[in-house]
């Protein structure tokens, strides 16, 4: 069972991101303030859920949350400030959208930067421990997937509808064949280095 709250604050939000390890597209974060009595038996870390379950949960979370926010940070910004800073920025931009603002923030992972003097705690595997982080993980993932499905139409040869920009064999093969697009993260190693042995 996931826990409702980490702190004693009434307004505690959870935040998480999706798409950190992708070669293309944005890193997307969500922040969610859930009511005290929120319960859902399916909700879990989005990685543990099927796409179908995530799609069922998305409107439930959005309807029942006190407030939620979702933010994309795109590839140009990722390339200029690096993926860790871009992930934190996306989380902070998603928290900006909350109304009311949270009194306490719980963050999935082990890295965050102070946000408007609001106390926070980073929690490793927090998306499998706390309802609000799990809810944020579902919203981040579903909103990012919707975006990747849209840009798939523009460049279907990379099959982003299927791989969502992650470094699958198929995605790397398409990069090798067709080169990179404006959606690719230029600062990432898009192809494994070819090793040559001079014998």
How many separate domains?
1
| Radius of gyration (Å) | 18 Å
CATH class type: Alpha Beta
What fraction strand? 15-25%
Written as H for each helix and E for each strand, in order along the chain, the element string is: EEHEHHEEHHH
User: Which parts are unreliable, with pLDDT below 50 for 5 consecutive residues or more?
Assistant: 194-199
Cα distance spanning the termini = 58 Å
User: Going across the major beta sheet, what is the strand order?
Assistant: 3-2-1-4-5
Q: What class do helices, strands and sheet pairing give?
A: alpha/beta
What integer is the average pLDDT? 94
The global form is globular
Question: Helical proportion?
Answer: 25-40%
Using the coordinates shown, work out and report the CATH topology.
Answer: Nucleotidyltransferase, domain 5
How many helices in DSSP terms? 6
CATH architecture: 2-Layer Sandwich
Major β-sheet profile: 5 strands, mixed
According to CATH, the homologous superfamily is Ribonuclease H-like superfamily/Ribonuclease H
Number of strands: 5
Structure description:
- The protein is of the alpha/beta class.
- The chain has a single domain, classed as Nucleotidyltransferase, domain 5, CATH 3.30.420.10.
- The protein contains six helices and five strands.
- It has helices spanning 51-64, 75-81, 83-96, 131-154, 160-163, 169-178, and strands spanning 12-18, 27-33, 67-73, 104-108, 120-123.
- Strands 3-2-1-4-5 form a five-stranded mixed beta sheet, sandwiched between helices.
- α1 (51-64) crosses α4 (131-154) and α2 (75-81) crosses α3 (83-96).
- The protein is globular, with a radius of gyration of 18 Å.
- Residues 194-199 have low confidence and may be disordered.
- It is found in: Cytoplasm.
